[in-house]
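Supplementary notes for students who missed Thursday's class. We covered one full example, reproduced here. Read the sequence, then the structure, then the short commentary at the end.
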Amino acid sequence: MKCPFCGAEETQVKDSRPAEDGVAIRRRRFCTACNNRFTTFERTQLRDLTIVKTDGRRVPFDRDKLARSIRIAMRKRPFDEDRIERIVNGIQRRLETETEAEIPSRRVGEIVMDTLRGVDQVAYVRFASVYQNFSEARDFQAFLGKLDKT
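Structure (token representation):
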């Protein structure tokens, strides 16, 4: 593992422990060249995923991008970082168990919305407003009207 500070190739693991409810390993590392410490996480990946964008482009699945969008939707809501990580892990596992390795971006959005709907309605509406590209207040009203009926 390269040192993020100086780029040296040799680093040593000083401590390892389970993280994120046992689905990851947190490692504290030490760079022998510059003496800095840093943390890495190791997660199981079932298979490589490719996201097919609406314009046809194919991009590798980006777990960090998924986590960022969920953090934005859940900003100032009563959820800690561990809960958000569990949500992201659950969504990633769900995507990895899909029958195809190429997943349309629409499907990813549906899974995120489905998950957030069961977790927090405010986060659900925030995510939906971006995902469904709300442009006016009446878009929110129509969406909330549908939410009340279900």
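Commentary. DSSP finds five helices and six strands in the chain. The helical segments are 63-73, 81-96, 105-119, 121-131, 137-149. If anything here is unclear, bring it to office hours.
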